[in-house]
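May I ask for a protein sequence together with how it folds?
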Amino acid sequence: MGGRVAIVLYVVAMAAVIVGVDFLFFRNRFWERLIVNIGIVLVFAAFYLRFLKHP
């Protein structure tokens, strides 16, 4: 149960970072925002796979 809560908090943190970056830097730029959002998701996924995933 504790692992699921950690994953949910991780996803919520990722969503908060994405929304924050969107509103601060890329309000009216669709393609730039899309590329940065994909990059943020990839960084979060790489961090999860490298440090948080248990064997």
Q: What stands out?
A: The chain has one domain: 2-52. The chain is about 85% helix and 0% strand. The two ends are 17 Å apart (CA to CA). Helices lie at 2-25, 30-52.
